[in-house]
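During the reporting period the student researcher (J.K.) took over the structure-prediction task from the postdoctoral fellow and processed the backlog of single-chain submissions. One of the processed entries is reproduced below for the supervisory committee.
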Amino acid sequence: MMPEPLLSARALESGYGDVQVLWGVDIDVAPRSIVSIVGSNGAGKTTLLLTLSGMLKPRRGSVAFAGESLAGLKPSQIVTRGIAHVPEGRRLFKTLSVRDNLLLGAIHRNDGSAVLRDLDFIYSVFPILRERAGQDATTLSGGEQQMCAIGRGFMARPKLLIIDELSLGLSPGMVEVLAESLAKFRDQDMAILLVEQDVITAFEISDYGYVLESGRVAFHGEPDQLLNTARIRDSYLGM
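J.K. obtained the following structure tokens:
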């Protein structure tokens, strides 16, 4: 028997003003899994994440998390339910140190000793952040800023960590380091929903994948299955 999804979206429709972007999207994220959403620019990937985290209000459809509807909840309420969002572009706070940016992720928590243990965990996954703990976070390299943004998301201790564009603008070596880190976060009893343009990277680290095309789910399945689909190979891998 399949476990109940941690996150489940059904017939989800969303957009901006008069422009509809998502059309009847269904996705599931299982507990302690890494799920990737891939697709070309304009496919609706970021719109989907913004809708799931409450930053966009769905026009139709439903989102359930841990068995409860998220309808009508504000983004801050969704965070307290257990969903943290690492946005595209990192959006770290200028003039604040790396440590302070990380601790801002724990602003809703009141378990001080556990917060410090989680901070140590972040430093163990990304040792460079410990070395640069007192440095203005916005002066870090792009890859280090992404580490800090992911760490800040983790510090909320979510059940689901949403990451938009893990590899954008980063070197292949840095992307590999970040991708390998996601399994360590999953092992801390959380699921990860990842938007990524690099299809190979996304599917190498994922348990399940979705391909969005023009705001609709065109394909979904286990990564090996998707990589062996002729149209995915032709459209996204040039093979």
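The committee noted the following: Residues 1-82+189-239 form a domain with the Rossmann fold fold (CATH 3.40.50.300).
J.K. will present the remaining backlog at the next meeting.
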